TrEMBL record:
<keyword id="KW-0812">Transmembrane</keyword>
<feature type="transmembrane region" description="Helical">
    <location>
        <begin position="276"/>
        <end position="298"/>
    </location>
</feature>
<dbReference type="Pfam" id="PF23452">
    <property type="entry name" value="HPAT"/>
</dbReference>
<feature type="domain" description="Hydroxyproline O-arabinosyltransferase-like">
    <location>
        <begin position="11"/>
        <end position="168"/>
    </location>
</feature>
<protein>
    <recommendedName>
        <fullName>Hydroxyproline O-arabinosyltransferase-like domain-containing protein</fullName>
    </recommendedName>
</protein>
<keyword id="KW-0808">Transferase</keyword>
<keyword id="KW-0472">Membrane</keyword>
<dbReference type="InterPro" id="IPR056508">
    <property type="entry name" value="HPAT-like"/>
</dbReference>
<keyword id="KW-1133">Transmembrane helix</keyword>
<dbReference type="GO" id="GO:0016757">
    <property type="term" value="F:glycosyltransferase activity"/>
</dbReference>
<dbReference type="GO" id="GO:0016020">
    <property type="term" value="C:membrane"/>
</dbReference>
<keyword id="KW-0328">Glycosyltransferase</keyword>
<dbReference type="InterPro" id="IPR044845">
    <property type="entry name" value="HPAT/SRGT1-like"/>
</dbReference>
Length: 317
């Protein structure tokens, strides 16, 4: 998304949704439409972005689902020369389901070419595209991007993972204005994807990159140190075997000591926490006791006062 999409800006209204062209939906012009809709002449080759009135959507949505299921089940017509799907696998069944369902209830589309663009395509002059649709491989120079290349990579759950950075726009020196604008949009899309990943990793509270770099350097240093020690040990004579055994025993002692430090600190924290709880319970008990005693003596004083008043009244009588 490069900006907001507002219905009134593009002229959407009841009975006339706005969408973008999908010329490869050739099934609207052949037997596929004749099989799956009673109104094939109303089949619009559109998709990607749909701006539809809510009343139209209410009567349309379930039919869209049914038509998508119908086309997906029609494996006899998966061929590329019928569907335009280069994978022959029914991947665009829901797109045909949309067009056939819209034709069924005679929804005629306002088709706009200035809403969405594929990165790698030459933009229309002065078009302010609101949507990038990166469905196909696109590239600039030696750099390219295709989402299908990343099916087996978990860039979402791997901290700070990202796609290869596109070139700097300043390096684009082509004289052809159309080619330059095309490359600028491709670079913008690639950068936007990496920015989205960066913000996602930041929101996940991934460790800072400099922390990871520092840890990696320390690990490399320890690894190098271990290699040096290993080489030195191999070069020692057999006569130093006893010394090595002693060193190994000391190392085990150190490890045992280090392992016992953490439980020791933990037990001290637990003991300190227990003492605090005991003190708090005692303090609360004392406060409750004093409150009860105070209430008792207050009631005694009230009873004594009532008795004196009663005796005084009897004496006057």
């Amino acid at each position: 998304m490069r900006g907001p999409i507002t219905p009134w800006e593009y002229g959407a209204k009841r009975g006339h949704p706005v969408s973008t062209p999908y010329e490869y939906l050739i099934g609207c012009d052949n037997i596929l439409a004749k099989i799956h809709t009673r109104n094939p002449s109303a089949c619009d080759k559109v998709g990607g972005v749909i701006i539809m009135h809510i009343d139209d959507l209410r009567r349309f949505a379930l039919l869209w689902l049914h038509k998508s299921e119908e086309v997906r089940a029609d494996k006899a017509h998966y061929a590329t020369n019928i569907t335009g799907d280069i994978y022959n696998s029914g991947w665009i069944s829901e797109m045909y389901g949309y067009s056939f369902a819209a034709a069924e209830i005679n929804l005629r589309h306002i088709i706009r070419r200035d809403i969405m663009i594929y990165p790698g395509y030459v933009p229309l002059p002065r078009a302010k595209y609101r949507v990038f649709h990166y469905g196909l491989r696109f590239g600039v120079g030696n750099w390219s991007f295709d989402k299908a290349d990343w099916r087996n990579a978990d860039v979402v759950n791997t901290c700070w993972a990202k796609f290869p950075e596109p070139p700097d726009p300043a390096t684009i020196t082509k004289q052809d204005l159309d080619a330059r604008e095309r490359d600028f949009l491709s670079i913008e899309c690639g950068r936007a994807l990496n920015k989205a990943l960066y913000l996602h990793h930041k929101r996940r509270n991934c460790p800072r990159l400099d922390t990871i770099s520092s840890t990696s350097k320390k690990t490399d240093q320890v690894s190098a140190s271990n290699k040096i020690v290993s080489v030195a040990q191999k070069s020692r004579s057999i006569s130093r075997g006893n010394i090595e055994s002693m060193d190994e025993g000391r190392l085990k002692t150190v490890k045992r000591t280090a392992a016992s430090v953490q439980p020791l600190h933990r037990s001290r924290r637990l003991a300190r926490s227990s003492r605090m709880w005991i003190i708090a319970v005692w303090a609360l008990s004392i406060v409750v006791f004093l409150l009860v005693i105070s209430m008792f003596f207050t009631e005694q004083r009230r009873n004594a006062s009532r008795s004196r008043v009663s005796r005084s009244l009897k004496a006057h009588v």
